[in-house]
Amino acid sequence: MRKRVAFVRNKYYNDSGMDYVFDRLHDELNKRNILLFLADNLYAGFPFKAPDCEFAVFWDKDAALARALENAGIRLFNSARATELCDDKEKTFAALAGKIALPQTLIAPLVYDVSNGEDERFISLTEKELGYPVVVKECSGSQGRQVYLAENRTELIALHRRLMRVPHLFQRFIAGECAGSDTRVYVVGKKAVGAVERKNTTDFRSNTFLGGKMNKIALSEELAKKAETVATALNLDYGSVDFICEDGEYAFIEANSSAYMQNAEKNGIPLAELFAEYIAEAAYGA
Questions:
Q1: What is the pLDDT of residue 209?
Q2: 122-166 per-position pLDDT tens digit
Q3: Which long-range contacts (CB under 8 A, 24 or more apart) does 118-126 make?
Q4: Quick check: 78 pLDDT over 70?
């Protein structure tokens, strides 16, 4: 009997990159006698009406929906927990603490909505511990849009005030080989399967969404080992792990549970094929 796998995406956000992921996975799974179908009109609730399938590719960040699907007995790629850990940078770092070297990071203190959040001591501590420039990140975000750079105290205070009631963190700026450069390692089944270098000459953020360019590089044993340590800790069926190379050492930056495929596949990394094979093994057994 042909297996059915749902492709769960956020109904309020879609773009050509997500369409590409669905189309490629649909074609690759079809070769393996598995039907991938769209399920983008789901709502978490009690009771929950689950789609007719045993497996789902979860290409969303709605943790409540992911848990509802799992509670209905549907195996997700990635799991609710993995998605939640990757979507919240504070949770990512908490899960990785003691397992891999992390850049020096300060988590912004919680500010209640009835308080003003002005804290001269915290600003001074951030300056002392991290120096300038300092990277400021909202804990949840994507495509680099919630990442900022404070060059001085005035900019740091302004960002902290702006994000006062939004979970965010501060990180030591890692210069890398050049501004706007990083290395992304793709993982399937917690195994590193390819690496690319991303460079952006117009922004300190390397994201292709913001103008960064991607080129395939050799996957070194060091990079593979570090990426697999992260993928194992976060339980990633599929995703990417980002590093910045500083003084010859790769420093972890963040992980992504729904890394787009198109640019990587253009560079010769067959992500859809590898991910489809992984799903097929889970559905039918090795």
A1: 53
A2: 999 999 999 999 999 999 877 667 889 999 999 999 999 899 888
A3: 122/160, 123/153, 123/156, 123/157, 123/160, 126/156, 126/170
A4: yes
Question: Domain holding 62: CATH number?
Answer: 3.40.50
14: part of which helix (H) or strand (E)? none
Residue 247 has pLDDT above 60, yes or no: yes
Using the predicted structure, report yes or no on whether residue 235 has a pLDDT greater than 90.
yes
Q: What range defines the domain where residue 128 resides?
A: 105-172
Q: Do the beta carbons of residue 59 and residue 86 sit within 8 Å?
A: no
Q: What is the CA radius of gyration of the chain?
A: 20
Are 62 and 10 in contact by the 8 Å Cβ rule? The answer is: yes
The pLDDT value recorded for residue 279 is 96
122 and 164 in a single domain? The answer is yes
Confidence of residue 174 (pLDDT cuts 50, 70, 90): confident
Same-domain pairing of 152 and 193: no
- The answer to the question of residue 283 being in a domain is no
Q: Measured between alpha carbons, how far is 175 from 103 in angstroms, rounded to an integer?
A: 12
Residue 286 lies in a domain: no
CA dihedral of residues 253, 256, 261, 266 (deg, nearest 10): 10
127 is a domain residue = yes
Residue 284 lies in a domain: no
Strand ordering across the sheet containing 147-150: 105-107, 168-172, 134-138, 147-150
d(CA 5, CA 57): 7
- pTM score: 0.90
The answer to whether residues 196 and 184 touch, using CB atoms and an 8 Å cutoff, is yes
